[in-house]
Amino acid sequence: MEGISRAAGVGPTIKIGGVDYTVKGRILEHYAAIEAEILAKRESPFKLMEDVILKAPSPEVRRALVEQALNRSEQWRFVTQQDISAFLKTPTGMCFSVWLAIRHNDPQLLTLEYVTSKVMEDIQTKVTIAAQKARAEAAAKEEAEKAAIEKAAAEEAHDKATDELSAKIEQASGLDERGNSTGPAA
Hints:
The chain is mainly alpha-helical. The protein has a domain at 4-110. It has helices at 4-8, 28-41, 45-54, 59-76, 81-88, 91-102, 112-173; strands at 13-16, 19-22. It is elongated.
């Protein structure tokens, strides 16, 4: 039975708004819905260029802009894999994908708007927690660095003080750091 869940379009569970939902893997229906969503959100190249074309300074420029709009219109009706990937990386696309994957659990409750609001709330909560954790780690790191600097300064001061004391004792004993006599010549 290996791989049956993938073939059946059923995956693991995800938690949305504190509730676990079974995920349905992307199937052909999902890709069709994603494509339709992308096309629905696109504006016609003629609509996008309408103002520009009307305000063109000359008939030659207008003609060139119309040709450009015509060229774009051929591509406008189709969705590439790059279009799908780019869409799914946006918050809108990601929420749409999550909605497609879990809506079968409760179609009445799990509307696109509901799923989008819950997903965005969950993401915001995770972002807030991550930011708090980062601030705490930065403060701890700063505190550790400050403590390390203080410790190094204390060790340096300790070493300097003991070296000075040792030097005075050595001097009084008539020896330098290497043990050579520093006293009066006999």
